Amino acid sequence: MKDVKESKFLREFTATLSNMYRLGWDERNGGNLSEILDEDEVKKYLDTDKVIRTIPLNFDAQYLAGKIFLITGTGKYFKNAEADPENNVGIFRVSPDGQNALLLWGYADGGRFTSELPAHLMSHIERLKIDTLHRVILHTHPTNIIAMTFVHDLDERNFTYTLWQMITECMVVFPDGIGVLPWMICGTNEIGVATAEKMKKYRLCVWAQHGIFGSGRDLDEAFGLVETVEKAAEIYLKIKPFEIKAKIEDDQLKQIAERFNVSYPDGWLK
User: Fold this and answer.
1) Per-residue confidence at 78, pLDDT binned at 50, 70, 90?
2) Which of 82, 116, 156, 221 is catalytic?
3) I need a surface site. Which of 41, 110, 157, 254 has the fewest CB within 10 A?
4) What predicted TM-score, i.e. pTM, was given to this entire model?
């Protein structure tokens, strides 16, 4: 059996973590990342019937029963994952009753999954109901997105609309808009439920004064969504103090949507 540390899925996962740390999005042990893995691919590297230990989920994940996840560990620093994946990330299968994580690899130092696991699993459930090819939930703390939640109203239409006007590609990348939650205590089932509710409509959800949740069919898509929003937020903050003399107008946003054949929420443009 091959060494799991040489697998494409683990190398791409830890490279994504390093990239987010390098960008300054995930200070200390901030942020978390989870990915649904293909079982046939995992079987090339691990005995998927060999359970190292059982960790309670404290959440009913029966909808995800049998699915295998790769996910960051609680208290772990993204910057260490590439060099030492076995202590910083873990691979587990959701038990048949949905009550436990059956650890297949990782968390070698006795650790466990991120405290935001309920938010991840709840969001995975809602995105899978919409898109059977969904695979990734990414939670991170991008500087400009967080800063924007201090100076912009948190109405979802207004927040999205401002970002659409910052870069031409925004309407193409997230035409469905962005969900926004007011400040809430993190690491709880309550914020998980609220985030999953937003994920029924959006692939992105901003947590005010905290960060953002992004979803995707793969790591690149989820990362690219957040990356685009973060750049748009940076531009917004840079131009906010100045008089705006030109901007992307509603009719131009409609032209972009037509050109790239994307749909936006009814009533969000004049």
Assistant:
1) very high
2) 116
3) 110
4) 0.95
Looking at the DSSP bridge assignments, the partners of residue 32 are 139
Return the pLDDT at 223: 98
Q: Does 116 participate in catalysis according to the annotation?
A: yes
pLDDT, residue 267, reads 94
Largest distance between two CA atoms of the chain: 63
> Domain-by-domain residue ranges, the chain?
1-114, 116-270
CATH topology of domain 116-270: L-fuculose-1-phosphate Aldolase (3.40.225)
What is the rounded CA–CA span in Å between residue 115 and residue 201?
24
Q: What is the pLDDT of residue 155?
A: 98
Given the structure tokens 């959701």, which residue do they identify?
Answer: 94
Amino acid at site 79 = K
CATH class of residue range 1-114: alpha beta
Q: What long-range pairs does 195-198 form, CB within 8 A, spacing at least 24?
A: 195/119, 195/122, 195/123, 196/119, 196/122, 196/123, 196/125, 196/126, 197/126
Query: What tokens does 161 get?
Result: 């609309």
Residue 33 in tokens: 């990342």
Check whether 1 has a pLDDT greater than 80: no
Q: What is the pLDDT of residue 106?
A: 97
Q: How far does Cα 177 stand from its chain's mean position?
A: 15
